[in-house]
Amino acid sequence: MLFIAGAAGVGYVLWSNSKDLPDYTQLANYAPPVMTRIYAADGSMLAEYAEERRLFVPVSQMPKPLIDAFTSAEDKTFFTHGGLDWMGIASAALRYAQFKLTGKGTVVGASTITQQVAKNFLLTNERSLERKMKEAILVRRIEQTFTKDQILELYLNEIFLGMNSYGVAAASLNYFGKSLDQLSLEEMAYLAALPKGPNNYHPFRQKERAIERRNWVLLQMHENGYITEEQMKEAQAKPLVVTPRPFGAQLFNAESFAEEVRRELIDLYGKDKMEKGGLSVRTTLDPKLQLYARQSLARGLIAFDRKRGYRGPIAAAELGVAPDWALLIKDRKVPEDMAPWRIAVVLDVNDGEATIGLQPNARPDGTLAPERETGKIPLELMSWARAYVDGTALGPQVKKASDVLKPGDIVYVASNKDTGQYHLMQVPEVDGAMIAMDPHTGRVLALVGGFSYGRSQFNRAVQALRQPGSSFKPIVYAAALDNGYSPASVIMDAPIEFKMPDGSMWKPKNYQNKFFGPSTLRRGIEQSRNVMTVRLASELGMAKIIDLATRLGVYDKLPAQLAMALGAGETTLMKMVAAYAIIDNSGRRVDPTLIDRIQDRYGKTIFRHDKRDCANCEAPAWTPDLPEPELVDVSEQVMNPYTAYQITSMMEGVVQRGTGKKILAVGKPVAGKTGTSNDERDAWFIGFTPDLVVGCYVGFDNPKPMGKGRTGGELVAPIVADFMKLALKDKPATPFRVPRAIELIPIDAKSGKRGIFGQPGVILEAFKPGDEPPDSTKIIGEDAIAAAGTATNGGVMLVPPGQGEPGGSLSAEPAPQQPPATGGLTGPGSGLY
């Protein structure tokens, strides 16, 4: 009767604890939070993002010594017990009793790997008899349902191992920068030492305890027969070498690109799926072009900043205060993307050079390395550092090193080619952005959001709203070409004024404060004539310009104000580059993208940028008679292809004879347009070849004048030229593709009338089918000039507030004052023949 009563009591306890157990069968569908990995176009790692840094690896792909290490450390009878280690439980109970009675010994646990799986996946960490009972019941059911390998797979992919590492695969990467199959025996043993408490065996803060625990794991592996005594001793003798792996952006100089991809993923799928969904993202980034873009922009910004003068050291310190000069600079950080710049303190200065102490390298545990490194900044490598006055004027010439530096100055330096010599460096005040894009697909090949992402995470390529200035003019002229004008149409470049609602007069003017009389549309865009552009916009009507700008994606809603024709409306560099890409793509729509494809954790493609349909790509098998798949371009025709070529040809002239002459250094056919806003607050250049579009802008984050002459042609075009020379160095000089039926007719570049090919001042101009230059040219605006050169607008506001003052205008670029054309030109711009 006692036995029956006891059995009944046990049965009741088991029943009461099992009736509300969690569903253990859900373990069969285990899908843990897995980090999202982002790759460049060539497959190299770009970035990783996760709430829990985890990579799922099947147990069949895990090295056997790794499994041996974990079972030796955590559950040596794992493969023989039924979920509960009764001998272990008895041993733990005896030790607990000994500790309670004598106060000696240690309390140890007896949880098996299966118990840890039950607790981690299905239960809480609550310490209670009821929880232990539920755990025991679940353990038996798990053992009956799953194989030992399946249980190990759950355990080894879920367990927390420190450094935000979940699972052994992530820990292998984060601690050692290796995949599991590359780990050495002692490294596997260290990972197996961590489940008991990663912080207790931290590789830097608790290094001795970590080595002791690792060596204990190796001993257990030997006692369990997994390794020989020789292998154990060899592994135990080795030091613990841990190299923490960085998180976030991995590819140098691509931080802005990676962050923009992260934002797009959150917009598409939400933050939770981005961090836990295990997405595999193949981006459009070309690492080589990205490096070129970063270098070109940085060089351009540094060169411009040096022309503005030296603003002094980062900080000043007293050398005698600290016993070691390295302590004065040990806590200062140089963003990783500013490498190879370093922090230095000036130790001594004489007339010819300054002696500097360089910031020592930090060890992985955060302490300074004991070595001390010094160097020299010779006078010639700091001669640029004339004192800053106002950004335009400079202080006196630098004649000796003490004119610039003094002992205790903390500065940035960069190594010179000569050993031991360094350049004096200064972080530019002005900033900018650059984008390179494939004009046929919209794939963003390179994106630089500023001088240093480490100093400012503001992405100027996609977030900065700036006035594009004259770089908007090609859209004005394209709208005219779409509405009956030709490149040979003549516009009067003469004074014009418009009455404002407040009674004042707006008088647009050219950059040179001069007027050049009748000029062709080509000449107007080549020399970036403001007055001609405003007169053309007035004759054409802003509605047509706004419509085209909207279709090109430059603006969502542009005010119907004439000043907008001069680029007064704010937009982003990305939108402007995409608009130029449409022009380069024969007028077909281009949607910019940073992402080619996204796959879920199972490898299924859930996003693809290329929307072209390929019906024959799904054939079950290839046969010799199977036709080659055809991809049909279904993109929208945004601009007439003839218009697109005409405006491209006109922008070739900008490079050949106009404000973009600095681009000639590329040595290949390039079209493009400069842009400068009022008071040189923004400077732009957007240029393109048949297969590459590049855009760049420079300006202060809080817009202010950069100084007279700091225009798109003088400041930004050299940056783009620098990039294009690198990007196109191995590419052939490809001319722009001429659409069929375009007629190339010789005209007089000044008058726009038909000319005789080969005569001075005659060029080949591109005309649409059926169009031709007239024998006598109508001059648009000539009647208005004859009628006193004024125009009113019936009270409609033509310029935005603050830009309607008499004499106000948006700046154009200065251009050489020369005859409208010279002899010997063999095509509109270049590259036709």
Task: Characterise this structure.
This protein is α+β, with helices and mostly antiparallel strands. The chain is 31% helix and 15% strand. Strand 8 (342-349) and strand 9 (353-358) form a beta hairpin. It starts with a helix and ends in a 47-residue tail after the last helix.
Distance between the termini: 110 Å
Biggest sheet record: 6 strands, mixed
Overall structural class, as computed from helix and strand content, comes to alpha+beta
- From the alpha carbons, calculate the radius of gyration and give it in angstroms: 35 Å
Provide a count of the helices: 21
Q: Could you report the average pLDDT, rounded to the nearest whole number?
A: 85
Strand order of the largest sheet: 5-2-1-6-19-20
Quaternary organization: single chain
What fraction strand?
Answer: 5-15%
Summarize, please:
By secondary structure, the protein is an alpha+beta fold. The protein contains 21 helices and 26 strands.
What's the layout of helices and strands?
Elements (H helix, E strand, L loop, with lengths): L1 H17 L17 E4 L5 E5 L3 E2 L9 H11 L11 H17 L10 H10 L6 H17 L2 H11 L6 E2 L1 H9 L8 H9 L13 H17 L5 H8 L11 E2 L5 H15 L1 H6 L3 E4 L3 H22 L6 E2 L25 E8 L3 E6 L14 E6 L30 E7 L6 E4 L5 E7 L6 E5 L24 H9 L8 E4 L4 E2 L5 E2 L10 E4 H6 L3 H11 L1 H10 L21 H12 L10 E5 L5 E4 L32 H17 L13 E6 L5 E8 L2 E8 L12 H16 L15 E6 L13 E6 L11 E2 L1 H5 L47
Parallel strand pairs: 1-6, 3-4, 15-26
Antiparallel strand pairs: 1-2, 2-5, 6-19, 7-11, 8-9, 8-11, 9-10, 11-12, 13-14, 13-23, 15-18, 16-17, 19-20, 21-22, 22-23, 24-25
Helix pairs in contact: 2-8, 2-9, 4-5, 4-6, 8-9, 9-10, 13-20, 14-16, 14-17, 14-19
